[in-house]
Design goal:
Chain lengths: 93, 209
């Protein structure tokens, strides 16, 4: 039911993700929240590192790791959210 | 804007888990009336697009980066209740699979980006819709993310790990995201404008709530 355009745009976003990860690494910029934390000397206290920590695949280079994370994450998000919406909907659950 | 573990006091984290839980339950009950076999896939598509768009961290000259958040966009396309569910789903996956946003901070992160951003964005849009879809969605995207950032500033400012009070954290988060939010507004307006012209059937029409 969705146009090819939708899949095209989604594909472009996914393909761009390693380039942006590379650019972010290159300039070393971070988000306002992280900047404030750094300025105030507050440290993160990770208690869980996830399955693909920080959108990387352990052992893989950043480029492929980010790309694989983007593909997997986008598909999981689509599947899980569709499943939840379907279960909630009057036709589903 | 994803708060990691270690930034929030546990009582603050708990309060936002409870608040978020209440809104998510209400959203599920309300969305049940709106969702059907035709709309459920759209919720999945919107969530997947927002996940992918959030991976693109734009470097802003001066040393800051920012990514699109999309709460207002989700609310405008799906309505606030299904929009809240879509954003909550994105944030849960980001936290559990990618450790983006702490587990203890998940309630607060969903509150900021999945509740405040979605509902403020949606109602701002509805308020201004008569003045044009582009203007309404641009302002909704901008106001939505700014309010989300103000809440993030409140949550960290009220926590003891940040020595500085909310008098520092709220303005810093609010001002930064108020500036970066202009981009969020334009992206939101571009996407909503495009959908309104090409697939108006997708856009949430009924005013809910």
């Amino acid at each position: 039911m969705f146009s090819r355009k939708f899949w095209f745009v989604l594909g472009v976003l996914i393909i761009l993700s390693p380039l942006f990860a590379y650019a972010a690494e290159l300039v070393g910029y971070s988000e306002p929240l992280e900047n404030i934390a750094e300025r105030l000397g507050v440290e993160e206290n990770p208690i869980y590192e996830g399955i693909l920590p920080d959108y990387s695949v352990p052992g893989l280079d950043m480029f492929s790791g980010t790309l694989i994370s983007a593909v997997i994450g986008t598909l999981i998000t689509m599947g899980v959210t569709f499943g939840v919406a379907k279960a909630i909907s009057k036709d589903g659950g | 804007m994803h708060i990691p573990d270690g930034f929030l006091d546990l009582d603050i984290a708990l309060i936002f888990y409870i608040l978020t839980g209440i809104v998510v339950v209400i959203s599920i009950v309300k969305a049940r009336k709106e969702l059907n076999d035709k709309k459920a896939p759209v919720v999945g598509m919107v969530a997947a697009s927002i996940f992918a768009a959030q991976m693109l961290n734009w470097p802003i000259p001066g040393g800051t980066s920012a990514h699109f958040v999309g709460g207002a966009l989700a609310g405008i396309i799906l309505g606030p209740f299904a929009g809240c569910i879509a954003m909550a789903s994105v944030l849960v996956i980001q936290s559990l699979v990618f450790a983006d946003g702490g587990i203890t901070a998940l309630g607060a992160n969903i509150w900021n980006m999945g509740v405040v951003n979605v509902f403020v964005g949606y109602y701002t849009y509805k308020l201004l819709e008569k003045r044009g879809i582009f203007l309404a969605s641009a302002i909704a995207g901008w106001i939505g993310i700014t309010f989300a950032a103000i809440f993030a500033g409140l949550e960290i400012g009220l926590s003891s790990s940040f020595d500085y009070s909310i008098a520092v954290t709220v303005p810093v988060m609010g001002i930064w995201h108020g500036l970066l939010g202009i981009v969020e507004g334009f992206v939101t307006a571009g996407v909503v404008g495009y959908i309104a012209s090409s697939r108006p059937d997708i856009l949430q029409k009924t005013v809910s709530g």
